[in-house]
């Protein structure tokens, strides 16, 4: 398929059910909008229901809204229960919502905000919905990571919540590295089932509200460079959409912009950091995530590949 992949390449989505987290604005909005336009029944899973309903009103197709606050495991469980009561199948779960470079703060469950929202909230949501996906051929879990997974990134098992010393950049890198490690470990666990696959994507550098907490020291240089290194949310959403819909996609792949340094451009298959492929760390992170969230994945057995 041509590397100039666009929304025109999205296959017909009629009959498919998609849940997109953080879909009231930015990348999530563009992702949900494109899927709905191609015929999917799309659920905007959002923290602010009013904003979600306003976003849904601007879309065409079968679009609904579900309250979901990823900073609260109670909210995640409530949202999952509501979705399970509405649907008997799920074709796409797109773990898109996220926060970036937040000041030191915690979720309602006491987790560092970026790790708790970007990784643990989505880990729990996926575990609670996975059995709606496993019987569905072609179903996919798509998790949105970032090039930030390479920047000062490691899984700090000795201080996962950054309680000793907080760095908003390192905390963001940890959360985005966790997104990739979760995807790779989930794919190994799913491989035996042969139906659902786990895929990752990143948007490059897109002009969205996500960057509102960028440290002051970085804000001015980014502002100067913005015309050269940023792209519109509609373009930034393309890697996610390709990961979610391209028939050629394989489990465990990672999609991002095809331009120089992956900051912008049409989506293509990309590679993630060597650290993201450390299987032992992936498995340990999985175990810790189960312990922290209280959510297990009984449908898929632990992977044993090292």
UniProtKB/TrEMBL annotation:
Keyword check for Oxidoreductase: yes
InterPro entries: NAD(P)-bd_dom_sf, SDR_fam
Pfam family, one: adh_short
SUPFAM superfamilies: NAD(P)-binding Rossmann-fold domains
Keywords from the UniProt entry: Oxidoreductase
Family stated for the protein in its record: Belongs to the short-chain dehydrogenases/reductases (SDR) family.
NCBIfam families: PRK06197.1
Protein name, entry field: Short-chain dehydrogenase
Native source organism of the sequence: Actinoplanes couchii
